[in-house]
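Project channel, design review

CF: Before we commit to the Thalassarche chlororhynchos constructs, I'd like one complete example in the thread so the newer folks can see what an input/output pair looks like. Taking Centromere/kinetochore protein zw10 homolog.
RD: sounds good, go ahead.
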Amino acid sequence: GDVCNMINKKYNEFLPSMQSAEDLVSQVDGLSSNIDLLKAGIENEVQRDLNVAVAEFTELKQQLERDSLVLSILKKLQEFDTAIKEYNTALLEKKYVAAAQQLEKARSSLKMLESRKGFELKILKALGTELTVQTQNMLYHLGEEWQKLAVWKLPPSKESSSLESVMHSELHLHTVPSKEEEIAGPPVASVLQAFAVLGELHTKLKIFGQLLLKYILEPLILYPSLQPFAEEQSDVFILRFKSEEPNLDRSSPMEVFDKIKLIFEILHKYLLNVPLEQPVEDKKECRVTLAELLGDMIWEELSDCLIQNCLVNSIPTNSSKLEQYIEVIKSTEEFEKALKNMQFLKGDTTDLLKYARNVNSHFANKKCQDVIVAARNLMTSEIHNTVKIIPDSCVALPRLPDPGAGDHLKMRKTSKLLHNDMVNLENETKLSQYTFSLPTCRISSSVEKLMELAYQTLLEATASTDQCCIQLFYSVRNIFQLFYDVVPTYHKENLQKLPQLAAIHHNNCMYIAHHLLTLGHQFRYRLTNILCDGAATFVDLVPGFRRLGMECFLAQMRVQKGEILERLSSARNFSNMDDEENYCAANKAIRQVLHQLKRLGKVWQDVLPVNVYCKAMGTLLNTALSEIVTRIAALEDISAEDADRLYSLCRTMVEEGPQVLTPLPEEDKNKKYQEEVPVYVQKWMTFKELMIILQANLQEIVDQWADGKGPLAAEFSAAEVKSLIRALFQNTERRAAALAKIK
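CF: and here is what came back for Centromere/kinetochore protein zw10 homolog:
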């Protein structure tokens, strides 16, 4: 029964809800049609009203933006105006930092105004002008104040920067705070901070820094006699110089550092110990001091000046003094530390300290530099100052120290190392006298000195640290490379024009080549330990020097040959000598050639080694004889008178030719070389045979020929002899018979 009741109850409830669902459906239908009506209505009317409203809203919004822009502009204009007013007040009260800050405020307001696009105000131009005028006005006031604070008394600019004029430079600092100022902070701070706010501090300090360098710091480095001298009076601190007799012509780095430290201490105390409020975005306190700014500006120039004029000069020139240099390095470190404490210097180990610490390498560089400069001076000096070198001076080389001997080697005079032809190489083995023999001749004294410089430098190298040793060894190689490049170019004109110089240069090159053969060998114990695979040698340079000497001398020989041929070309081919004029021309040509050879023989005398001399003079004499033979052998007709005159011309050559060979200044010693003329003059016998032909009859010529086995056949070909017979003799049967025998 209960179950039935439940179902009934549910069902009863269900019926009404069923009813209400049906009602809902019909309501929905009604609503739906209402919506359709409304939709139509909206599309027609409301949409129109809405568009109007949006347009109105946009207009209002733009109006509002315009108003707020105008408002913000008015606000900025007001800010600008206030700032300028407050600036004026502050300036009158000499509150420079406040005044400067107000100017900067006005500047930023103006910037904002100028950045508004589409809003160009006529007034902005006027405001800009006003701001510029006020800024200049403020800078002028600050400038006046600054000039009162730091007063330079300088010598008239026309004077050179001599010691005299430097003595007149003074710097007066009116920054000694008086009692009542001490509370408010010194005026110097406010002036400099105001400059900083206006962004002008840099310019002011730069000018101050340049004056400081030019009139105080650099003179102290350059003139050892200058002493800085400071006196404090009630309201001013004066910095000036007094001059004292220096004990040396260069002051030591220690003294210079002390003087400069003093200057910086004074500046630090009276002028530069001012913190600058730097405007910083990240609110971190960034306080740069003036000292740091000034340091940044002048340190580089100051340290260059110290290096160039103080440290460079203090680098020792010989290895024994290197130890004492530690002092200099120490004082450089202390100098830098002091400047850091005063905040002039920021970083660590500046160039100055690096330079001082690098003394070993500078020592080597300085040494090499000196060597190259000395070498270059020798190379560009005159060639014609000569010394005579003689091979019999047999000097053993000095015993070299063993590799560990180090610095205690006393430098030996090296001139005795030179000119030794019998070189005592290993201190025991003697070589034959001629192994490295160099014949007696003259060389430029500058080249002898150059060689001494090379030996001296290598000696020093063997006593130096490894690094220095290597550098010195290569600078000696450089001396020779330099000679090879410089001398031929530098003396070019003279070597072409002056036969004597060409000869001396030839000797110079041979002399250098001669020494280069053994130069490395003598120092090899010490050098090869350091230079890998026995590179301590100069032998590779030898062929180049020999070639250099030969080429220059051969060029001179070509010039001389050219002149001989030129002179002989005026001899009218030696034809028709029975004509007086022709004979005179030929005679003159021969005289000129002999004169040229005699002069040359004198110029080269005692300069060239004898064997070179004889070969050279012999070659030139040969050129003349050979040319004469060729010309005469080519003649087609020689009359009896012609033949006599040609003979006498040839006789002049044969008699006077040998006399041009005068290799030695002692006359009696030259005979030997003059008698050996056929050895040096290839065509000598040919010339003598030609003279015989000019005087001989047909039979004598045939006898001289001797079926091609006689002396004549040794000098002339059958064709040449036949040609001469045809020129000298009339066409007869006897001539035909003689010609038939020449074959």
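RD: helpful, thanks. The chain has a mean pLDDT of 81.
CF: The radius of gyration is 53 Å.
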